[in-house]
Specification:
There is one protein chain. The chain has 292 residues and is α/β, with parallel strands linked by helices. The chain has a single domain, classed as NADP-dependent oxidoreductase domain (TIM Barrel, Alpha-Beta Barrel), CATH 3.20.20.100. It is 36% helix and 16% strand. It has helices at 29-42, 57-65, 93-107, 132-142, 166-176, 196-204, 225-228, 241-251, 265-276, 282-291, and strands at residues 4-6, 13-15, 17-20, 47-49, 73-78, 112-118, 146-152, 183-187, 208-212, 257-260. The strands form 2 sheets. It has an 8-stranded parallel beta barrel, surrounded by 6 helices. A two-stranded antiparallel sheet has the order 1-2. Helix 1 (29-42) crosses helix 2 and helix 3 (93-107) runs parallel beside helix 4. The longest helix has 15 residues, at 93-107. It is globular and about 55 Å long. The two termini are 28 Å apart. 43% of the residues are buried.
Length: 292
C-alpha cells in the first residue's frame, strides 16, 4: 500500500506518489488515456496534477474519472492562455476566472482541490500578496470552488543559467513567505538537488511541497550521474535506477507528494511498486546524498 501524507496545511491527505497528467497532451493519448488514468486510481494513487496548458488532459480526466471523483485529490492550474493569441500566461483575475470556469467544465467537477498559478514570478503579481488575482483566488476558495491555492514554478529555458530551477531558486522562499499560498510545486530529485534547502524551509513554513522531475534527465550528462555515483551498489534486490531515484525523492521528509507521469500502465504500476518499498534506510539515504 502506498504511504499517505498530509499536504502541508491544506488538510488534504495524499499518497506520497502522485500522478502528473502532462503526458495526456501527447499525440495518440486518446488511445490510452482511459486505461492509464484508471490504472492510476486502481494502483492506489490519490493525487493527480494537470493544467489547461496540457492540451486535452483535463478533458480526459473529466471523461474517464469524473465518476470516481471521490477517490482522488485533483490539482490543476490557472493563468493559462490557451487561445494561441498573446502571452502564454496572463496573471489577471479575469484570466483566472476563465480558467476556473473552463477547468470545472472539462474536469466535470464542482470543485478543484489544489489550484496553482502556473509559471508565475513576483513581477507578474505587482500587488504582491494583495494582488487582485490572488484576491480572486481567495474569493473562490472561500466560496468552495477551490480548496488549497498555490504556485507551480516553470522550468524556464534550457539556456537559463540555472535551468530547470531558475525561477524556483530565485522566488520560492520569497513567495512562500507572502502567507497566502498553501502549496508550492517545483523540481526536485536525486539528479536535481539544488532546491533541497528551499524544500525544507518551505515545508517547515507550513506549505505543502509538490515535487516533480524526480526521474527526469534534464541534461545529456545527467544520464551518467547514477553510474558515476555507483548508485547500483545501494540498490535493493530487483531494484533499478528509476525505482531508486523515485524512492530517494520520496525519502525526503519535507515532500508532500512526488508526481510522476506516464501514459504506459506498466510504468505506472512499476512506479507504484517502487514507492511501496517505502523510504530508503537512513544509512542508504545518507550515502546516496553523499554520492549525489
Amino acid at each position: 500500500m502506498l504511504e499517505t501524507r498530509l499536504l502541508g496545511r491544506t488538510g488534504l491527505t495524499v499518497t506520497a506518489l502522485g500522478y502528473g497528467a502532462m503526458e495526456l497532451r501527447n499525440p495518440g493519448a486518446e488511445v490510452w488515456a482511459e486505461e492509464a488514468l484508471n490504472t492510476v486510481l486502481d494502483a492506489g494513487i490519490t493525487f493527480i496534477d494537470t493544467s489547461p496548458d496540457y492540451g486535452p488532459s483535463e478533458e480526459y480526466i473529466g471523461r474517464y474519472l469524473s465518476h470516481r471523483r471521490d477517490e482522488f485529490v485533483l490539482a490543476t492550474k490557472c493563468a493559462c492562455n490557451t487561445t494561441g493569441v498573446g502571452p502564454g500566461h496572463i496573471f489577471k483575475a479575469e484570466q483566472f476566472e476563465k480558467n476556473l470556469v473552463e477547468s470545472l467544465r472539462r474536469l466535470k467537477t464542482d470543485h478543484i482541490d489544489v489550484w496553482q498559478i502556473h509559471c508565475v514570478t513576483p513581477p507578474d503579481l505587482p500587488g504582491g500578496a494583495d494582488d487582485p488575482a490572488i484576491r480572486y483566488m481567495q474569493k473562490v476558495k472561500a466560496e468552495g470552488y477551490v480548496g488549497a491555492i498555490g504556485i507551480s514554478f516553470k522550468n524556464g529555458k534550457a539556456t537559463d543559467p540555472a535551468y530547470p530551477t531558475e525561477h524556483q531558486k530565485a522566488y520560492a522562499r520569497d513567495m512562500a513567505s507572502w502567507g497566502v499560498f498553501d502549496t508550492l510545486q517545483l523540481v526536485y530529485g536525486g539528479l536535481m538537488r539544488v532546491s533541497e534547502a528551499d524544500v525544507a524551509a518551505i515545508d517547515e513554513g507550513g506549505l505543502g511541497v509538490i515535487a516533480r522531475g524526480a526521474l527526469q534527465r534534464y541534461f545529456p550528462e545527467s544520464a551518467f550521474i547514477p553510474e558515476k555515483a555507483r548508485l547500483s551498489e545501494l540498490f535493493e534486490e530487483g531494484e533499478d535506477v528509476n525505482a531508486f531515484l523515485l524512492r530517494f525523492a520520496l525519502t525526503n521528509p519535507h515532500i508532500g507528494t512526488v508526481i510522476c507521469g506516464s501514459g504506459n500502465p506498466a510504468h505506472i504500476r512499476a512506479n507504484v511498486r517502487a514507492a511501496e518499498r517505502g523510504p530508503l534506510s537512513a544509512e542508504v539515504y545518507a550515502e546516496a546524498c553523499r554520492r549525489l
